[in-house]
Amino acid sequence: MSGYSGRDAVIVGAVRTPVGKGKANGALHGVLPADLLAHSLRELIVRTGVDPVEVDDVIAGAVTQVGDQSVNIARNALLGAGFPETVPGTTVDRQCGSSQQAISFAAQGVLAGAYDIVIAAGVESMSRVPMGSSVLPGSDPFGLDMAARYPEGLVPQGISAELIAAKWKLSRTQLDEFSASSHEKAAAATKAGLFDNELAPFAGLSTDEIVRPGTTVETLAGLRPAFYNEAYAARFPQITWEITPGNSSPLSDGSAAVMITSGETAKRLGLRPLARIHTTTVVGSDPLYMLTGVIPATEKVLRKAGLALSDIDLFEVNEAFAPVVLSWAAEVGADLNKVNVHGGAIAIGHPLGASGARIMTTLVNALEQRGARYGLQTMCEGGGMANATIIERL
Q1: Are strands 252-262 and 275-284 parallel, antiparallel or unpaired?
Q2: pTM here?
Q3: How far does CA 111 lie from the centroid of its chain?
Q4: Which sites are catalytic (predicted)?
Q5: Which end of the chain is less enclosed by CB atoms within 10 A, N or C?
């Protein structure tokens, strides 16, 4: 999707819960994921004033669709939020980019005339539904043909992050400096109230729980490598084991929701468009270096949009691991002063299925606060993929 075609897709509302620790002692652990998503959906309706009977569909991202997050959580959450039974819902999985993909699907539906009003959302309760718990003992989600294609075997994301750090020669100090900066920016944004407009406090949590003010490179330097493995060390002798809990995104709980309409519908209902979804794309990339898809995704979305890197005022690049953003910046030539200006997932958290919508909510508000025009969001995804989206503030 790119360019302007007469009918446009605009964001008229965006909201998220604060992000909680994805652990049993986290503030949102006691909340069922369907209720966590229902809260963002309900709050989005309150803030926009749209009658939910007019919503054509709810498309929600969730990665680990098992247990508390199974059985089409989008539909369950919208019913829990009090939407009319006539409103449908569907749940999508593009790994970490699930709710960014939901936004793309929603925008494409609006542009095609299939929707007038649609909600793209996402949720993940990593404290209640642990990452990887959908892979049952004895199961093989990859298949024999894929194993034959990659006979040496693929690797977990933490090892991919180590491979990226080694390939781009990123030192532990560089990774920790970037990570400390993420906490510093998120703490400053929280203190200045820059998240207030996007947050829907819930379960006694009014700000992001994981942000650690005062985080320093020195404190991060004391953390041990998180993914050291003798077999991988023998296979990949170039790895120097730089990835720690401090320069990785933490386990997190949260939800977010974005309302997308046609420009005509927004005008009819008296809604103020916050941004136009200008261009979307998705790419596949090397599944061994699975987190580098943000590089070709950024290049592709700029090409499709007919824009240069210099046209983009703000970037949001998901901080799954510090080397993802640093290798991306090195390759595309982006100014890190324009990247994740309110902090990123290393500080705020990465509730997998919710992160795309969470980041979009933050990006829309950051553009508004700075009076900026173009924002570009991109996220790496498991299996070697990445979404990229350009929005234009209106």
Answers
A1: unpaired
A2: 0.97
A3: 23
A4: 96 (acyl-thioester intermediate), 350 (proton acceptor), 380 (proton acceptor)
A5: C
* H or E element at residue 277: strand 275-284
Nearest to 378 by CA among 307, 314, 311, 308: 314
3 pLDDT exceeds 60?
Answer: no
Which of 39, 96, 183, 342 is catalytic? The answer is 96
| 342 given a catalytic annotation | no
60: β partners: 91, 121
CA angle (307, 258, 200) in 5-degree steps: 125
Averaged pLDDT, 77-87: 98
Decide if 380 is catalytic. yes
29 catalytic per annotation: no
Predicted confidence at residue 5, as pLDDT, reads 45
Cβ neighbours of 131 (radius 10 Å): 15
In sequence order, what are the residues at sequence separation of 6 or more whose Cβ sits closer than 8 angstroms to the Cβ of residue 54?
116, 117, 269
The CATH architecture one would assign to domain 9-129+250-275 is 3-Layer(aba) Sandwich (3.40)
Q: What is the DSSP letter of 63?
A: S
